[in-house]
Amino acid sequence: MERKSNDGRINPMIIGLLLIAAGIIWGGNALGLFQVSLFFRGWWTLFILVPCLYAIIKNGPDVPNIIGLIIGILLFLSARDILPNGTLGKLIIPVILIVAGAGMLIGKKR
Q1: SS3 for 48-109, per residue?
Q2: What is the model's pTM?
Q3: Contacts of 88 (CB under 8 A, 6+ apart)
């Protein structure tokens, strides 16, 4: 019997287990059995960080993914009040310029 490849797609079993876990957590919270919160200050930055990290791991580092990763980290630090107010806006453009310039220099050496 030949086994078909998964082609990088998520296994339906994993999705099923995640849905069951989410249902148990949600139901337990609703009934007051326990209190679990999946959300924390800056949780939304994971929508930037995770895809950039995945692309870097899968394809190697490139300028857009590194810029996205750094911006995601800066947004996370700002959401957690680790960066003082106003610092994020001052750092985004310099970070983009530095990473783009470094990418051009590294690209020339390859």
Answers
A1: HHHHHHHHHHHHCCCHHHHHHHHHHHHHHHHHCCCCCCCHHHHHHHHHHHHHHHHHHHHHHH
A2: 0.62
A3: 74, 75, 77, 78
- Report pLDDT for 35: 85
> Can you tell me the mean pLDDT for 79-108?
85
CA 84, 40, 72: angle at the middle one, nearest 5?
55
CA distance 71 to 93: 10
What residue ranges do the domains of the chain occupy?
Answer: 8-38, 40-109
Which has the higher per-residue pLDDT, 91 or 107?
Answer: 91
